[in-house]
Amino acid sequence: MPNKLKRTELHELGEFRLIDHLTQNAKATNDSTILGVGDDAAVIDPAGKRMVVTTDLLLEGVHFDLTYFPIRHLGYKAVIVNLSDVYAMNATPKQITVSLGISKRFCLEDLDELYNGIYLACEKYGVDLVGGDTSTSYTGLTISVTAIGEANENELCYRSGAKVNDLICVTGNLGAAYMGLQLLEREKKVFEGNPNVKPQFTGWDYILERFLKPEARRPILEKLRALGIKPNAMIDISDGLSSEAMHICKNSKVGCRIYLEKLPIDQQTFKIAEEMGIDAIVAALNGGEDYELLFTVPIEQHDKVLGMEGVSIIGHITAENTGAFLITPDDKEIQLKAQGWNAIVEKE
Amino acid sequence: MPNKLKRTELHELGEFRLIDHLTQNAKATNDSTILGVGDDAAVIDPAGKRMVVTTDLLLEGVHFDLTYFPIRHLGYKAVIVNLSDVYAMNATPKQITVSLGISKRFCLEDLDELYNGIYLACEKYGVDLVGGDTSTSYTGLTISVTAIGEANENELCYRSGAKVNDLICVTGNLGAAYMGLQLLEREKKVFEGNPNVKPQFTGWDYILERFLKPEARRPILEKLRALGIKPNAMIDISDGLSSEAMHICKNSKVGCRIYLEKLPIDQQTFKIAEEMGIDAIVAALNGGEDYELLFTVPIEQHDKVLGMEGVSIIGHITAENTGAFLITPDDKEIQLKAQGWNAIVEKE
Questions:
Q1: Which of A216, B129, B209, B346 is positioned for an S-S bond with B26, CB 3.0–4.6 A?
Q2: Domain containing A262: what range?
Q3: Distance from C-alpha of B317 to C-alpha of B161, rounded to nearest angstrom
C-alpha cells in the first residue's frame, strides 16, 4: 500500500517519465504480443486467429464516485468490464490499452494504486497492457480501456445466433451490483449528513464486492468448452438482463419467454432490496453492471446445462412475432424493456 | 449542413436508438472487418498480417475548444491523429472504435456533425468504424478513438531501428498547427473583449487548416514503398520535432544532429510567428500536432530521398554518447529537450 502521507505531484515527473513509471511493470506474457508500450502503436500477431476488439469509457461522476470507490478497485473494474465483452464473444482476451485523463487532484501515489488494480486484473486474466494515452484533464478522472482478444473462427458467439426453442441461460446471479451501488449511495448520504456516523457495511460484503470488484465469467466458458457446448448466442450483462435479452432477440430476430421465479438472485440482494424498499426483481432486470453472461443453447443440451454449477436456465427462445416477455408465477406476461442510460441523461 | 434551428435532445432517442442512429452509416469496406458495430465486440480477420493498435483520448478544454473548433473538423481530427500513429508504424489503418462522453449541452444535430467528420476521415483513408461506447458526461465532450492497422511483419517500422549515419527526414513542414492554434486563441481573446470585432482569419487558411483539419501522411509512405525505401525508424510528430527525435534516439540508443536551417517551415508560419512575437523555430521544435512523419533512412538512400517532394533531410543519426543536438547556422549546439504536457499540468 502506498504511503498516504506521501504525495508526488505529477508535474514533478512530466509526461514521459510518468508514462515510463506507470508502464514499467507492463510485461508481454502472450505470444501474440509482439510489441507493447513504447512506440506509436502496439504490434500483435494473431497467428491465424480471428481478433475481437471492444472498448469502454469510464467517467468520474457518471460511472464511478471516488468518495467510496477505492481507486485500485476502479482500475481492476475498468479492465474487467472490457474483458467481460471479449468473453461474451467466446474469445480469450490477450491485450488491453488504457487511456487516462487525469486532473491535478490526483498524485502519483493515486495513479500507482489505479495501475495496481489494472495490473492485478491483467495478471489474473492473462492479459498484456500494450499501450494507451496519458493526458491532463480539468474535470476529474477519465478512463478509456480497449481490449483485444482472439478466437478460432468457429468458436465465436454472436448476439445474432439464437434459435427458436433454445434454452436461455444466465451465469451467477443478478441485481447484486446494483444493490451494492444503492447501499454505497445510501451510506454516502448518511455520512454527508453527519460525518460522525460510521457507514453500515457489515454483512453486505458480497453485494459490495459485486459492484466494486466484479469478475469476468471465464470459468463458465471453460466449463462449456469442456462439456462440448457452444452457445448459439451470447452477451454480457452490463445494462441489465432485460436490455441484454432484447439485444439477443433483436439481433437474432426471435422472441423470448423468461420466467420470473427462475431469475437467480442472491440472498443479500433480496435482503438489502427489502430493507431499502426496492423490488429485487427490478434490480435483476434493469440494475446492470452484473457482468454475468446471458447465453442460449440448443434444447438438446438441457441436461448438460442443468448440471452446471453457476448456470441457471431462465427461459427459452420463441418466434419473433411472439415478442419478449417476462412470465410471472401467476402466468402474467410483462413485456421486457431496454433501459440504457435514458434515466441518467434526463437527470442531468 | 444540419439545420441549426433544429435541436433534438438526446434523451428523446435514448441510448440504443442514439447508437443505432450514429452508426447506421458505418459500413464494413475492408475484407478484414468481419463484424462491425452491434455486438459485444467487433471481429477482425487479419489473415496472416501483423496488427497494430493505438489509442488517443481527446478532452474538451484540454485538447480542443469548441468556441472555435468546428465539431465536424473535431471528428475528422480525432480519427486522423490515430491513423497517423498507425502510418508511423508503416502499417495501413483498417478499423477504428470511437467512444464518446456527451454532456447535455450537445444535441443530436451536434453529434451528427461530429460523426460526419468521423465518417469523412474513414472514407478518405479506407477505414471502418467497428465499435465504441456512448455515455453521458457531466463535463463536456470526451472522445476516445482506438485505431487498428495491419502490415506484413517485414514492413513494420519501429522507433528503435535508427542506425548511426542514417539520414533524418521529415515530411511536410513544422510548427504550422501550433501557430494556427495561437492565432485562434488570440482572436478568441479579442472576441471575448469585444464581440463586435470580427476575427481576422483572412490569409491564414493554411495554418488554420493544419490545426483544425490535419491529414495523415499516407501518400509519402506510398512513395517510399514505390521507391523501395524502408525507413529504419519512424515516428509521427504529435508533441513536436524535439520530443519525437529524442524518442527515436532513446529507443534506438543513438544520438542525432539536426540542422536548424534545414527545418521545413511554411511562409505563413514564419509570418504569423513574427507578427505574434513567437520564434518560429521554437514552434517547429516544440509546437506539436503537426502529424508529420519523422523517419531515418540509410545514407545510401540519400539521392532517392532528396528527390522526394514533401520530404526534407534535416540531419543525421550519431553515436549514442554524442547526445541529441540542434545545430545552428553559426555551428552552436543546442541540446534537444522533450516537452510532453508538463506545461499544461503546471498551468492547471
A1: B129
A2: 159-347
A3: 11
Q: Taking residues A157-171, what's their average pLDDT?
A: 98
Residues A43, B59: C-beta atoms closer than 8 Å: no
Final residue of a structural domain among B118, B133, B154? B154
Co-location of A182 and A142 in the same domain:
no
> Does residue B318 lie within any of the structural domains?
yes
Same domain, A165 and A146: no
The partner residue sitting opposite B45, judged by closest CB among A50, A131, A236, is A50
- Residues from chain B that touch A160, judged by Cβ atoms under 8 A, are 39
Write the DSSP string, B163-216.
-TTPEEEEES-SSHHHHHHHHHHHHHHHHHH-TTSPP--TT-HHHHHHHHS---
Put simply, whether A20 touches B (Cβ < 8 Å) is: no
The rounded distance, in Å, linking the Cα atoms of B265 and B307 is: 19
The CA distance from B147 to the nearest CA of chain A, in Å, is 9
Task: State the number of CA atoms in the 13 A half-sphere of B153 facing the CB.
Answer: 8
The DSSP code sequence of A73-138 is: HHHHHHHHHHHHHHHTTT-EEEEEEEEEEE-TT--HHHHHHHHHHHHHHHHHHT-EEEEEEEEE-S
Q: State the smallest CA–CA distance between residue A329 and chain B in angstroms.
A: 30
Q: What is the pLDDT of residue B14?
A: 80
Helix (H/G/I), strand (E/B), else coil: A100: strand
Flag whether pLDDT at A114 surpasses 90: yes
Give the model's pLDDT for residue B2.
Answer: 47
* Furthest C-alpha separation in chain B: 66
End-to-end CA distance of chain A: 36
SS3 call for A60: strand
Q: What is the pLDDT of residues B126-175, one digit of tens each?
A: 999 999 999 999 889 999 999 999 999 999 999 999 999 999 999 999 99
Which residue(s) pair with A42 in the sheet?
B53
Residues A168 and A317 in one domain: yes
Closest CB from B54, B86, B341 relative to A136: B341
- Does residue B243 lie in a domain region? yes
Does B306 contact A at CB distance below 8 Å? no
Min Cα–Cα distance to chain A from B96, Å = 10
pLDDT over threshold 50, residue B345: no
Q: CB count, 10 Å around CB of A303?
A: 7
Phi/psi at B149 (nearest 5 deg)?
Answer: -135, 175
What is the total count of domains within chain B?
2
When pLDDT is averaged across residues A45-53 and rounded to a whole number, the result is: 94
- Mean pLDDT, residues A66-94: 97
Q: Look at residue A4 and tell me if it is in a domain.
A: no
Query: Residues 269 to 298 of B: which have CB under 8 A from any A CB?
Result: none
Grade residue A2 by pLDDT with cuts at 50, 70 and 90.
very low
CA distance A6 to A26: 24
Could you say which of A40, A48, A153 has the minimum Cβ distance to residue B235? Answer: A40
Prediction pTM value? 0.93
Residue B173: per-residue pLDDT? 98
Rounded to an integer, the average pLDDT of B223-230 is 96
Q: Nearest by CB to B46, from A46, A101, A345: name it.
A: A46
pLDDT, residue A348, reads 31
The dihedrals phi and psi of B297, each to the nearest 5 degrees, come to -130, 155
